[in-house]
Sequence to fold (326 residues):
Amino acid sequence: MFTDLPDLAGARFGSAVVAANDEFFAPKEGLIKPTKPEWREGLYTERGKWMDGWETRRRRTPGHDWAIIRLGLPGIVRGIVIDTSFFTGNYPEEASIDACALEGVTPAARLTSDEIAWEPLLARVALQGNTANPFEVRSSKRVTHLRLNIFPDGGVARLRVHGTVVPDERVFRPGRETDLAALEHGGLVVAASDMHYGHPLNLIMPGRSTHMGDGWETKRRRRPGHEWTIVRLARRGIIDRVELDTDHFRGNAPGRCMLEACDVPAQSFDPDAAVWKPLVAETPLEPNARHAWHDLSAPAATHVRLNIYPDGGVAPLRVFGQAQVT
Fold:
């Protein structure tokens, strides 16, 4: 399901709603808030009922309303969720999405001018009220900005833009060390044994974790064995050093960890058939602490597998190295 892919429009990645033609009842920034939409019974502002999202006034002239979003993670869009939660008599009947790919920082004035060649990404579709409306997108083009069009007016609680990250290739230039596992560079979690309390995608998010829920945490293991997760690196590369934190995990940090790596093209990757080689030997972990391993001198790798013993929570995981030119 495309919703397993990262939200390219997530506010955490530096995304922003840079322009909208109207935001009378609720501000445009609400579209990409990271939290789930909420309802506040009986709460009103000087503009009307408080709503969690973006809401325009009732249109009395021909046309439609729109908002422009700069993606924090440029990439290829695989699916869109237009969430109208709590908008019942005031949601748009239809919506569409246009896209473009621009280099550098583009001012809002230019984005709203006739200079930009917007191309259709999602054709006009019907929406249901008080519903997360999912739409699959079939496109192979890298995009940096989206324009959400609503017909004719109304409110949208959240816009989620799931897809594959396509980073600026300059981060992989020869001789430059980069975090090959980072989501913002194109790294992706492709498998995990368990994700009961926290999704393993949290491992490769930008920045430090902010609380215990901002990491990968498994349920308590009641049988022999251990938990694991696999990260597909953004590029095949030589790994020099690894960092792993147990920040905020005190009574539930793993007792030990071990990292392995393999070198297999993405299209033929099979975790059970891959030849995994030790990257970091099994070693104890301290609760609420940062751990680092340097000068690994590892062979080229495309994937890493983090094993934790027997269970628990960690975040983030950083895999520094140099991408290999293919």
In short: The chain has a mean pLDDT of 96. The CA atoms of residues 182 and 273 lie 25 Å apart.
